[in-house]
């Protein structure tokens, strides 16, 4: 009989709730004074990301698989649900950069990185830290998985039925775009669930020659990288393009944002392979990213005082809670302490 540690339902519920809180509320995309709207986003965010985690864990995949399915998630949300990837009007996305084959290039770059990190990886990592005994196990049984899958599909339909009719009435993405998104999602799913799990090592060897920096330095990198990417990617104030550029000059911050994201990701992958990498590093990394994320939202995304104050409080609360969690964790991961 398969052993199922206790807390699976609480862990699943935690991930469902955390995902829209981190992805929407903590940036200010959904302002705090409109927090009730998170109930509408629970199916697409909470159920969708829980579905991603469940299928990845069942297939034996790791973080690379989650990254690929995070890209697939962004294509479902922005390409099929909102259809903002090709809309000439929604969110001003078409004005952010020169379009390529009808695609809003800067908008896609901004959102694919954002959703992979803040909609998928960070909520899953936070839940793993809160329920460490379950971090490598599925939370749901088969019936629960089917229900969550149905809920995620409902979330896509709900998103399509609520946002575009009010903010982008009359626009319908071309059939070839929708078909291309579906095909891309299928390819990413095959790579993430069938190909990568067969190639990924099961355990990181103890005594790796690569050293991890001190946890507070990892947190500083997380904060600087997050703030830098958001500043390079989001139009701020009255600007229509990122980094206050005009015309084709937007390609400069777009390239810088891509280099920053790839470089930071590569550094984290390298550090996490070190024998000294532990939950304290993960906690500091998440704390730095979440604090910078909410502070950027307070400065550049929301406008009402209640929302700005709320995001500052949310950033401080996130850091305080993660600091308390860090004090309860060993400096070296138990499975990496040499015998």
UniProtKB/TrEMBL annotation:
<feature type="transmembrane region" description="Helical">
    <location>
        <begin position="143"/>
        <end position="163"/>
    </location>
</feature>
<keyword id="KW-0472">Membrane</keyword>
<feature type="transmembrane region" description="Helical">
    <location>
        <begin position="59"/>
        <end position="76"/>
    </location>
</feature>
<feature type="transmembrane region" description="Helical">
    <location>
        <begin position="112"/>
        <end position="131"/>
    </location>
</feature>
<feature type="transmembrane region" description="Helical">
    <location>
        <begin position="216"/>
        <end position="236"/>
    </location>
</feature>
<keyword id="KW-1133">Transmembrane helix</keyword>
<feature type="transmembrane region" description="Helical">
    <location>
        <begin position="248"/>
        <end position="271"/>
    </location>
</feature>
<feature type="transmembrane region" description="Helical">
    <location>
        <begin position="283"/>
        <end position="303"/>
    </location>
</feature>
<feature type="transmembrane region" description="Helical">
    <location>
        <begin position="33"/>
        <end position="52"/>
    </location>
</feature>
<feature type="transmembrane region" description="Helical">
    <location>
        <begin position="309"/>
        <end position="326"/>
    </location>
</feature>
<protein>
    <submittedName>
        <fullName>Uncharacterized protein</fullName>
    </submittedName>
</protein>
<feature type="transmembrane region" description="Helical">
    <location>
        <begin position="175"/>
        <end position="196"/>
    </location>
</feature>
<keyword id="KW-0812">Transmembrane</keyword>
């Amino acid at each position: 009989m398969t052993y199922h540690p206790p807390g699976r339902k609480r862990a699943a519920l935690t991930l469902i709730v955390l995902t829209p809180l981190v992805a929407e509320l903590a940036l200010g995309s959904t302002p705090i004074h409109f927090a009730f709207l998170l109930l509408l986003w629970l199916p697409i965010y909470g159920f969708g990301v829980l579905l991603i985690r469940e299928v990845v864990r069942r297939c034996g995949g790791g973080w690379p698989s989650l990254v690929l399915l995070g890209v697939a998630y962004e294509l479902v949300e922005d390409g099929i649900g909102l259809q903002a990837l090709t809309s000439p009007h929604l969110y001003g996305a078409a004005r952010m950069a020169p379009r390529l084959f009808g695609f809003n290039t800067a908008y896609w770059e901004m959102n694919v990185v954002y959703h992979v990190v803040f909609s998928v990886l960070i909520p899953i990592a936070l839940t793993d830290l809160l329920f460490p005994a379950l971090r490598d196990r599925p939370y749901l049984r088969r019936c629960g998985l089917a229900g969550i899958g149905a809920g995620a599909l409902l979330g896509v339909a709900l998103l399509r039925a609520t946002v575009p009719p009010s903010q982008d009435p009359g626009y319908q993405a071309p059939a070839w775009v929708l078909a291309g998104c579906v095909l891309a999602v299928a390819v990413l799913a095959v790579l993430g669930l069938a190909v990568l799990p067969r190639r990924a090592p099961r355990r990181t060897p103890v005594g790796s020659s690569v050293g991890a920096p001190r946890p507070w330095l990892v947190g500083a990198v997380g904060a600087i990288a997050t703030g830098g990417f958001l500043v390079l990617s989001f139009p701020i104030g009255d600007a229509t393009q990122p980094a206050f550029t005009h015309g084709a000059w937007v390609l400069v911050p777009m390239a810088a944002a891509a280099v920053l994201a790839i470089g930071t990701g590569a550094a984290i992958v390298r550090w996490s392979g070190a024998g000294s990498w532990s939950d304290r590093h993960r906690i500091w990394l998440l704390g730095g990213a979440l604090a910078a994320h909410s502070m950027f939202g307070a400065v550049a995304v929301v406008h009402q005082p209640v929302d700005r104050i709320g995001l500052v409080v949310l950033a401080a609360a996130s850091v305080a809670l993660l600091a308390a969690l860090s004090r309860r964790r060993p400096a070296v991961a138990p499975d990496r302490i040499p015998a």
